[in-house]
Each structure stands twice: as structure tokens, then as C-alpha cells.
Amino acid sequence: MDADLDTVFAALADPTRRTILTMLLEDDMAVTDVAEPFEMSLAAISKHLTVLTRAGLISQERRGRVKWCKLQPDALKNASVWMQGFGQFEPVNLDAFERFLQQELSEAPYSET
Amino acid sequence: MDADLDTVFAALADPTRRTILTMLLEDDMAVTDVAEPFEMSLAAISKHLTVLTRAGLISQERRGRVKWCKLQPDALKNASVWMQGFGQFEPVNLDAFERFLQQELSEAPYSET
DNA sequence: CGCATATTCAACCGATTGGTTGACGATTGC
DNA sequence: GCAATCGTCAACCAATCGGTTGAATATGCG
């Protein structure tokens, strides 16, 4: 039915891809630069970027031999709206965000998984 | 860690599971009743329900021989909050979001424990 | 007790996922 | 022109996913 939600949620279900999205919040990046901090091949990152592109979460524009990746946060809207259908929390809740930050940050950054 | 986000987003990436969640918005349901409208085996639905349970999106309580499924929408909070961070990265709370970014990025492999 | 109901388990299947490597096409710069 | 850089493609691999079927385990009921 809603293949859109399928692909968006599936794209978000991978930590590497979520990290890439947060990296792109800072600025647009070339594929090679996106790949740099990760301990995996460029080809693997390239695949992740196609997944994100197909989900509409980023766009890729080639300029010369460099392909620039740009965040497209609007793609999250449908998914966000879908989740808000469950109505147990306010649509835009910065307080919840702050609490989430506290919780995230209070966890040991380097604890073994 | 956000293995939480992994499992929640992965659970949401399936249309059958999303439909089940919306069904449970109406009311708690027994496993058999959840399965009834779907054109797949009860065992398949049972598996979907375990996925949802492991993601914390529902809880299952056995009463007699019937296992009741109950929506747990709070599990969506972290995921929703994570997504909303992308929707509004211009507002005042950029500081908090920056700290969130640091946390996320510090989980990239190059920080190897 | 004996049978129906409710649900899960176990084994299996094909498709997809996330990763690798090596070759390849395009583009840039000396 | 040629070599280096950027990125993808193709083939492969192991693991996971979403589904099936059939047997197994509780539990409730007459």
C-alpha cells in the first residue's frame, strides 16, 4: 500500500544510514567524504546512499566528478505524520527531544555493545 | 545506544505490522483476531507480533489461552523525536541538537571503543 | 477424560540485505 | 596523453526476513 513509508522506515532502520543523515545535517557532502569516517568500503557507503536516495531522504547531484549529497528532511514528514496518528505525544515536542538528549548523553559513549 | 531505533524503525518498515498497529489503536486484540483480516497464516502474524513486541511497540499479556495484544505507543517517542530533530534544525535549540549530533557521530566506528 | 481452541515452535524456502572485492567509466589536472 | 581521483557496477557471500506447513503445547469446555 504505502510503499513510501516502507522505504523511509527501512532506510532509517540502519545505524550507518542514520549517522549519514546526521552528518548531512551539518552540510552537503561528497560521497567520498561521507564514507571517510566509516570502517567500510566506499562501495558499501555508495549503496547506503542509494537506499537513502530512493527513500527520498537525500538527493544526489553530480558536479564534475564529485557527487554531492544533500539532506531532504521533508521526506520524513509522512513518516512523522503517520507516527503522530498514534497521538500519545505532542506533534512537535521539544521537551521530549531534550529528555531524549539527556538520556542519550547520559549513556557511556564507549560502552561495549 | 540506539539499537532501540534500529528495531523500532525496522518494525515499522513492514505494512502488515503498521496495519496491526493501527488495528490496535481501536482496542486490545487477541492474536487470532489480529490475524483474521490478513491473507496469511496465523504463524506469520504471530511472528509479526513478536517483532512488534521486541521493538516495544506492543505488549502481550496471556489471560487463559488467549494472548492479548496492547499498543505501547510510547515506544514511538524516541523514533518520533529523532525524526523531528531533522524537521526543525533552525530553531533556538540548535545547541541541544548539536550535542545530539556529537553523540551520534561518536558512535561511528572510527572512535573504536 | 477427550476434544476443540489459541498460540507457538521447528524446519524449510526464496528473496532481500549489508557487506566484500575487483574491474570499469568519467572527470580532472599535470 | 596519462595518471590519479570519484563513484558505480557486477559478482559473490553469509545472514536475515517474511512467508509456508506440520507438529507441539497449553488451556477451556462439555
UniProtKB/TrEMBL annotation, chains A, B:
Query: Which species expresses this protein natively?
Result: Aliishimia ponticola
Stored PANTHER family? SLL0088 PROTEIN, TRANSCRIPTIONAL REGULATORY PROTEIN
Listed GO MF terms? DNA-binding transcription factor activity
Where is the HTH arsR-type domain positioned along the sequence? 1-93
InterPro entries, per this entry? ArsR-like_HTH, HTH_ArsR_DNA-bd_dom, WH-like_DNA-bd_sf, WH_DNA-bd_sf
SMART domains named in the record: HTH_ARSR
Tell me the protein's name: ArsR family transcriptional regulator
